[in-house]
């Protein structure tokens, strides 16, 4: 099938590449000229494990094309996916201007029946708005379908190729058949395509993200209780996660959820609720807890250094909002850095992929280390903000000798507390009791 993806960012590039991989002829359209040039010349513009190989193969075999020209890009397509940004507007509700602008243009450009698919995360009622914006100028028949995307960054290819489910919202029988054909290769594993109306599909996406964010904020509050009551959140997590009704996943406490989706989508659902005169109380609490959680380590750090961070130097491992991505949108590490700098401290950071993005944002306000161990030089303490695999089994001897003082604040619970104590560290984490060194080995 010939398909077009409008918007070749994270979701657009993965969507286009994966549809090409299943034999479709895919044209990706983007207004970013540099991005289109890079992609056309074979350069993948995002860091996503497994994507490059698929991208190169499909580009070489002629199933992937890139253009900045919308008219040319959609001319032969049967299905047009809109994978455009829906950032928070000034009041926190989803900004639909990117989507509606393209919808408006499409109305002028459609020459035969096409399906226009909202792949972006959009509030309930957007399919109707997109339909109206196209219909204003269109002279041919078309359908608008809601097909939200559930991929996670870092495992995006796997999520797309083997989805837990595909949600397709449409009231058109014609569109339903074409969408079912398009997704047939992805649901061979027995996972379902769930057909529903457009509004339910739109709400499903927000409900999924908001529910997952709720799980995280809930566990972060349990972690606080664990610390105060003398319990261990790892034990509690295992204890409740073994109940199938609760499930093992997304119960990891930490320093808050970040990324380009949860923060904006939870906020957008709260705003949507307000438009129908409903105060979504649980989600307001989820957001409050997350705000506090992003800087959860700060009071621990301040207390250790007796409320004086002036002149202190910190090593920071992890800048991306989670491992296996270079994405720093709403990354908790950035909030920690801000607070440390404001308190007069300095920071030397290391991240396997995200440093170029942070450099663009912060310039020389912090130091970027060549290697994870270089970041430790002369540091008063190590702070861990992202659970990259390379941080999980470090050379503790190197940490000990490179750090000025053997102190670790771990926002991702990477290590076992008793072991850290044996190794001679002062170690504080999330939802577990702080341990202090048995034998202090200060330099
Ligand atoms: N990033 C994720 O993990 C993820 C997962 C599921 C859903 N989503 C949702 O998918 C949507 C897209 O997210 P993203 O992270 O891919 O965004 P992104 O910012 O990475 O990419 C958007 C792309 O659209 C392009 N663009 C903007 N205006 C355009 C126009 N008029 N014509 C053509 N291209 C245009 C931009 O240049 C950019 O390349 C959002 O609604 C997001 O909430 C994101
Ligand atoms: O137990 C957990 C799991 C996750 N997180 C944090 O939650 C955030 C989001 O993580 P994750 O969901 O893995 O990343 P995203 O790539 O943002 O994916 C989410 O957002 C996407 C965009 O809407 C959806 O498509 C995905 O289904 C949804 O998982 C990150 O900051 C994680 O550190 C935790 O703190 N504890």
Describe what this molecule looks like in 3D.
42% of the residues lie in helices and 13% in strands. The chain contains 18 helices and 14 strands. It is elongated. The chain folds into three domains: 2-195, 3-Layer(aba) Sandwich (Rossmann fold), CATH 3.40.50; 205-293, N-(1-d-carboxylethyl)-l-norvaline Dehydrogenase, domain 2, CATH 1.10.1040; 295-428, 3-Layer(aba) Sandwich (Rossmann fold), CATH 3.40.50. It has 443 residues and is of the alpha/beta class. α1 links the parallel β1 and β2 (25-29). The model has no long low-confidence stretch (mean pLDDT 96). The longest helix is centred in the middle third of the chain and has 32 residues, at 198-229. The strands form three sheets. Strands 3-2-1-4-5-6 form a six-stranded parallel sheet, with helices on both faces. It binds nicotinamide-adenine-dinucleotide and uridine-5'-diphosphate-glucose. Its EC number is 1.1.1.22. Pathway: Nucleotide-sugar biosynthesis; UDP-alpha-D-glucuronate biosynthesis; UDP-alpha-D-glucuronate from UDP-alpha-D-glucose: step 1/1. It holds the Pfam family UDPG_MGDP_dh_N. It comes from Chitinophaga pollutisoli. Residues 315-417 form the UDP-glucose/GDP-mannose dehydrogenase C-terminal domain.
């Amino acid at each position: 099938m010939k398909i077009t993806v409008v918007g070749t960012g994270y979701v657009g590039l993965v969507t286009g590449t994966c549809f090409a991989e299943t034999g479709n002829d895919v044209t990706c359209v983007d207004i970013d000229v540099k991005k289109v040039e890079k992609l056309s010349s074979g350069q993948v513009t995002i860091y996503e494990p497994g994507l490059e190989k698929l991208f190169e193969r499909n580009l070489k075999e002629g199933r992937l094309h890139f253009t900045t020209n919308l008219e040319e890009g959609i001319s032969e397509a049967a299905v047009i996916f809109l994978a455009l940004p829906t950032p928070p507007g000034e009041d926190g509700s989803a900004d639909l201007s990117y989507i509606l602008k393209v919808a408006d243009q499409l109305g002028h450009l459609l020459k035969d029946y096409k399906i226009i698919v909202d792949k972006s995360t959009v509030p309930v009622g957007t399919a109707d708005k997109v339909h109206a914006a196209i219909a204003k100028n269109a002279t041919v028949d078309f359908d608008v379908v809601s097909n939200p995307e559930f991929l996670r960054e870092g495992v995006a290819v796997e999520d797309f190729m083997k989805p837990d489910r595909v949600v397709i919202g449409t009231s058109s029988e014609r569109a339903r058949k074409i969408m079912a054909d398009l997704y047939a290769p992805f649901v061979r594993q027995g996972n379902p395509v769930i057909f529903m109306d457009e509004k339910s599909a739109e709400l499903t996406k927000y409900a999924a993200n908001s529910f997952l964010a709720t799980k995280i904020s809930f566990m972060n509050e349990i972690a606080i209780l664990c610390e105060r009551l003398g319990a261990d959140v790892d034990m509690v997590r295992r204890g409740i996660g073994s109940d199938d009704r609760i499930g093992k996943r997304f119960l990891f406490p930490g320093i808050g959820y970040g990324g380009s989706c949860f923060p904006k989508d939870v906020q957008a659902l709260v705003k949507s609720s307000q438009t129908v005169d409903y105060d979504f109380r649980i989600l307001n609490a989820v957001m409050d807890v997350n705000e506090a959680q992003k800087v959860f380590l700060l009071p621990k750090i301040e207390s250790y250094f007796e409320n004086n961070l002036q002149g202190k130097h910190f090593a920071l491992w992890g800048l991306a909002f989670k491992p296996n991505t270079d994405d720093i949108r709403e990354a908790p590490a950035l909030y920690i850095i801000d607070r440390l700098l404001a308190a007069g401290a300095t920071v030397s950071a290391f991240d396997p992929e995200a440093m170029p993005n942070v450099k663009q944002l912060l310039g020389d306000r912090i130091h970027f280390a060549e290697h994870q161990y270089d970041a430790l030089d002369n540091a008063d303490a190590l702070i861990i903000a992202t659970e990259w695999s390379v941080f999980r089994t470090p050379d503790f001897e190197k940490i000990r000798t490179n750090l000025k003082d053997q102190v670790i604040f771990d926002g991702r619970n990477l290590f076992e507390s008793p072991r850290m104590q044996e190794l001679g560290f002062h170690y504080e984490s999330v939802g577990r009791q702080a341990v202090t060194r048995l034998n202090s080995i200060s330099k």
